[in-house]
Amino acid sequence: MPELRDLYQEVILEHSKAPRNYKEPAGTNHKAEGYNPLCGDRFTVYLEMDGDAIRDIGFQGAGCAISKASASMMTQSVKGKTKAEAHKIFEQFHRLVTGHSHEDGSEDQAELGKLAVFSGVSEFPVRVKCATLAWHTLEAALEGQQEKVSTE
Ligand code: ZN
After folding, report:
1. Interval between CA 22 and ligand 1 midpoint (Å)
2. 39 CA distance to ligand 1 middle (Å)
3. Predicted structure pTM score
4. Helix (H), strand (E), coil (C) string for the chain
Protein backbone atom coordinates (compact mmCIF):
# COMPACT_ATOMS: atom_id res chain seq x y z
CA MET A 1 0.00 0.00 0.00
CA PRO A 2 2.20 2.85 -1.26
CA GLU A 3 -0.24 5.55 -0.14
CA LEU A 4 0.18 4.40 3.44
CA ARG A 5 3.92 4.74 3.10
CA ASP A 6 3.38 8.42 2.34
CA LEU A 7 1.27 8.71 5.45
CA TYR A 8 3.89 7.13 7.66
CA GLN A 9 6.09 10.14 7.60
CA GLU A 10 9.49 10.20 9.15
CA VAL A 11 8.35 11.91 12.34
CA ILE A 12 5.56 9.42 12.89
CA LEU A 13 7.88 6.45 12.40
CA GLU A 14 10.49 7.92 14.68
CA HIS A 15 7.98 8.49 17.50
CA SER A 16 6.46 5.04 17.10
CA LYS A 17 9.90 3.44 17.41
CA ALA A 18 10.98 5.55 20.36
CA PRO A 19 7.82 6.87 22.05
CA ARG A 20 8.30 9.76 24.46
CA ASN A 21 6.94 9.65 28.02
CA TYR A 22 6.39 5.90 27.74
CA LYS A 23 6.01 5.43 31.49
CA GLU A 24 3.65 5.58 34.44
CA PRO A 25 4.64 8.74 36.30
CA ALA A 26 5.27 8.15 40.02
CA GLY A 27 2.77 10.85 40.97
CA THR A 28 -0.06 9.55 38.75
CA ASN A 29 -3.45 10.58 40.17
CA HIS A 30 -5.64 10.23 37.06
CA LYS A 31 -5.63 7.50 34.45
CA ALA A 32 -7.82 6.02 31.75
CA GLU A 33 -7.67 3.16 29.30
CA GLY A 34 -8.48 3.51 25.62
CA TYR A 35 -9.17 0.82 23.05
CA ASN A 36 -9.68 1.02 19.30
CA PRO A 37 -11.27 -2.28 18.23
CA LEU A 38 -10.97 -1.42 14.53
CA CYS A 39 -7.20 -1.66 14.70
CA GLY A 40 -6.46 -3.26 18.07
CA ASP A 41 -4.75 -0.20 19.54
CA ARG A 42 -4.87 -0.20 23.33
CA PHE A 43 -3.30 2.43 25.58
CA THR A 44 -3.41 3.64 29.15
CA VAL A 45 -2.82 7.35 29.72
CA TYR A 46 -1.48 8.43 33.12
CA LEU A 47 -1.71 11.96 34.48
CA GLU A 48 -0.17 13.70 37.43
CA MET A 49 -2.51 16.64 37.89
CA ASP A 50 -1.58 19.62 40.01
CA GLY A 51 -4.92 21.35 40.41
CA ASP A 52 -5.92 22.14 36.85
CA ALA A 53 -2.45 21.68 35.37
CA ILE A 54 -0.91 18.58 33.82
CA ARG A 55 2.32 18.37 35.78
CA ASP A 56 3.36 15.03 34.27
CA ILE A 57 1.94 12.62 31.73
CA GLY A 58 2.81 9.20 30.41
CA PHE A 59 1.30 6.35 28.47
CA GLN A 60 1.77 2.63 28.00
CA GLY A 61 0.26 0.06 25.69
CA ALA A 62 0.44 -1.30 22.20
CA GLY A 63 -0.83 -0.28 18.82
CA CYS A 64 -0.01 0.64 15.25
CA ALA A 65 2.61 3.22 14.35
CA ILE A 66 0.09 6.04 13.98
CA SER A 67 -1.62 5.42 17.31
CA LYS A 68 1.67 5.10 19.17
CA ALA A 69 3.26 8.15 17.53
CA SER A 70 0.11 10.16 18.21
CA ALA A 71 0.17 9.16 21.89
CA SER A 72 3.86 10.02 22.13
CA MET A 73 3.44 13.45 20.54
CA MET A 74 0.27 14.13 22.55
CA THR A 75 2.18 13.69 25.81
CA GLN A 76 4.76 16.21 24.64
CA SER A 77 2.20 18.75 23.51
CA VAL A 78 0.02 18.78 26.65
CA LYS A 79 2.63 18.38 29.39
CA GLY A 80 2.60 21.52 31.53
CA LYS A 81 -0.70 22.69 30.01
CA THR A 82 -3.98 23.27 31.82
CA LYS A 83 -7.00 21.08 31.27
CA ALA A 84 -8.62 23.80 29.13
CA GLU A 85 -5.49 24.26 27.02
CA ALA A 86 -5.19 20.51 26.44
CA HIS A 87 -8.84 20.39 25.42
CA LYS A 88 -8.30 23.19 22.91
CA ILE A 89 -5.29 21.43 21.37
CA PHE A 90 -7.37 18.27 21.00
CA GLU A 91 -10.15 20.20 19.26
CA GLN A 92 -7.65 21.62 16.77
CA PHE A 93 -5.99 18.24 16.30
CA HIS A 94 -9.36 16.58 15.75
CA ARG A 95 -10.31 19.14 13.09
CA LEU A 96 -6.96 18.56 11.39
CA VAL A 97 -7.16 14.75 11.20
CA THR A 98 -10.82 14.74 10.18
CA GLY A 99 -10.19 17.31 7.45
CA HIS A 100 -12.62 19.79 8.98
CA SER A 101 -10.25 22.70 9.32
CA HIS A 102 -10.58 24.01 5.75
CA GLU A 103 -11.34 27.59 6.66
CA ASP A 104 -8.85 28.06 9.44
CA GLY A 105 -6.64 25.09 8.60
CA SER A 106 -3.44 27.06 8.33
CA GLU A 107 -4.06 28.55 11.74
CA ASP A 108 -4.66 25.12 13.25
CA GLN A 109 -1.48 23.77 11.65
CA ALA A 110 0.62 26.69 12.91
CA GLU A 111 -0.68 26.32 16.45
CA LEU A 112 -0.36 22.56 16.44
CA GLY A 113 3.29 22.68 15.42
CA LYS A 114 4.73 19.19 15.10
CA LEU A 115 1.29 17.61 15.45
CA ALA A 116 0.55 18.92 11.94
CA VAL A 117 2.39 15.86 10.57
CA PHE A 118 -0.88 14.01 11.20
CA SER A 119 -2.78 16.13 8.65
CA GLY A 120 -2.30 13.31 6.08
CA VAL A 121 -4.46 11.07 8.27
CA SER A 122 -7.57 12.92 7.04
CA GLU A 123 -7.18 11.06 3.73
CA PHE A 124 -7.49 7.72 5.55
CA PRO A 125 -10.75 7.77 7.55
CA VAL A 126 -10.07 4.39 9.15
CA ARG A 127 -6.83 5.82 10.58
CA VAL A 128 -8.55 8.77 12.29
CA LYS A 129 -9.49 6.51 15.21
CA CYS A 130 -5.84 5.45 15.53
CA ALA A 131 -4.66 9.06 15.58
CA THR A 132 -7.26 10.24 18.09
CA LEU A 133 -7.33 7.25 20.48
CA ALA A 134 -4.74 8.66 22.88
CA TRP A 135 -6.50 12.03 22.86
CA HIS A 136 -9.89 10.54 23.70
CA THR A 137 -8.17 8.58 26.46
CA LEU A 138 -6.57 11.78 27.73
CA GLU A 139 -10.00 13.42 27.89
CA ALA A 140 -11.36 10.47 29.86
CA ALA A 141 -8.41 10.66 32.26
CA LEU A 142 -8.90 14.41 32.72
CA GLU A 143 -12.59 13.93 33.51
CA GLY A 144 -12.10 10.81 35.61
CA GLN A 145 -11.93 10.36 39.32
CA GLN A 146 -8.62 10.59 41.10
CA GLU A 147 -7.23 7.16 41.77
CA LYS A 148 -4.90 8.33 44.47
CA VAL A 149 -6.02 11.01 46.83
CA SER A 150 -3.36 13.48 47.87
CA THR A 151 -2.91 13.90 51.59
CA GLU A 152 -1.43 17.37 51.16
ZN1 ZN B 1 -4.19 1.80 14.77
Report:
1. 17
2. 5
3. 0.87
4. CHHHHHHCCHHHHHHHHCCCCCCCCCCCCEEEEEEECCCCEEEEEEEEEECCEEEEEEEEEECCHHHHHHHHHHHHHHCCCEHHHHHHHHHHHHHHHCCCCCCCHHHHHHHHHHHHHHHHHHHCHHHHHHHHHHHHHHHHHHHCCCCCCCCC
Q: Are 27 and 48 in contact (CB under 8 A)?
A: yes
Domains and their CATH numbers in the chain = 2-142 (3.90.1010.10)
Each residue's pLDDT tens digit, 20-45? 999 999 999 999 999 999 999 999 99
* 94 Cα: distance to centroid of ligand 1 (angstroms): 16
Segment 93-128, tens digit of pLDDT: 999 999 887 665 567 777 788 888 898 888 888 899
Q: How many residues does the chain have?
A: 152
What distance separates the 2 farthest-apart alpha carbons in the chain?
A: 55
